[in-house]
Amino acid sequence: MHTFRTLIAASILVLSVTALAEDNPVDLPLPRVQHLIDTHIHLFDPGRPGGIPWPPSDDKVLYKPHLPDEYSRIAKSAGVTGVVIVEASDRLEDNKWVLDQVAGDPFYIALVGNIDPTRKDFGRKLNRLRKDKRFVGIRARNSTPIDYTNPQVLANFRLLQQAGLSLDILANGKGIPGVKEVDALAGKLPGLRIIVDHVLGYDIDGNPPGKDWINAVASLSKHPNVYCKISGLYQRCTQQPAPQNPDHYHTVLNPLWKYFGSERLIYGSNWPCTKKSGDYASFVRLVNAYFAAKGQDASERYFWKNAATAYGLPLE
């Protein structure tokens, strides 16, 4: 009886360790690429005068200072060689605040800033900000929804296009309508480089996407000016904390790979939001598990070459 119980206990232990290993890719390698550019992090400090518009004060993980010293330390140890900051604030003055935080640090290559695209003085504000060569575009993210059919918005995006800058779009929570919205916009502005963040805002539940979503992605991918960030995978999971098993994400990654291919998928972590499901290196290993299996060329494109094209980064 004692031997039988011992065998049962040992079996349970093996199963538990196996399950843990399957959910935690700690033994996966980090990427070996010429550059590793993280195109999506946020920097902010709730202690600033006037506070910050995001994240909310009740967020116990994020509502604290997240500044360059912390990010540089953890990112460099995971192999990151350069960074594109994405502004998390809709306050115009915060563009300068972020740039000031990384002044003189070549690790921070670029900023995707924020200018309200409904402003009539958009062009004037854009011209002022783009004097700083690190300013590579804007993310369309206001406190209220943006109407991408609004003539003023379209006129302002044409100014962005004429300046050779890019547009990030956050489609989180919009589902298929959000994908179709970007599809229509890309058709109207074929010369504007558009980067859709966080796997097109798809809610990852481990199940295969429906046919309607697949069709919407296929249509969107026909626009050669549209890129997709394979970023924010942890945050887009319906299960929280998010699984760290790479296989859990194949249901969304496979169709994105099929339609956008190796040349229009881009790496971004969405740090510090990654803290809610794992450490920074675990996320790098997670996406590397997928792209390393596609070959070295696909990895180089995903981790830096596509970012260089989409954002006009000075990388060779």
Describe the protein in words.
By secondary structure, the protein is α/β, with parallel strands linked by helices. The protein is 41% helix and 12% strand. The chain contains eleven helices and eight strands. The chain has an eight-stranded parallel beta sheet with strand order 1-2-3-4-5-6-7-8. Strand 2, helix 3 and strand 3 (108-113) form a beta-alpha-beta unit. Helix 6 (175-188) runs parallel beside helix 7. The longest helix is centred in the first third of the chain and has 22 residues, at 2-23. The protein is globular, with a radius of gyration of 20 Å. Residues 1-23 have low confidence and may be disordered.
Order of helix and strand elements from N to C terminus: HEHEHEHEHEHEHEHHEHH
CA-based shape: globular
Number of distinct beta strands: 8
Main pleated sheet: 8 strands, parallel
Which runs of at least 5 residues are low in confidence (pLDDT < 50)? 1-23
Using only CA atoms, what is the Rg? 20 Å
The overall average pLDDT, rounded, is 91
**Strand residue content:** 5-15%
CATH class: Alpha Beta
Q: How many H/I helical runs? A: 11
What helical percentage do the residues reach? 40-55%
Write out the strand line-up for the largest beta sheet, numbering strands in chain order: 1-2-3-4-5-6-7-8
Predict the CATH topology. Answer: TIM Barrel
Compute the separation of the termini in Å: 67 Å
What is the name of the CATH superfamily? Answer: Metal-dependent hydrolases
The appropriate CATH architecture is Alpha-Beta Barrel
Q: Helix/strand/pairing class, anyone?
A: alpha/beta
Total domain modules: 1
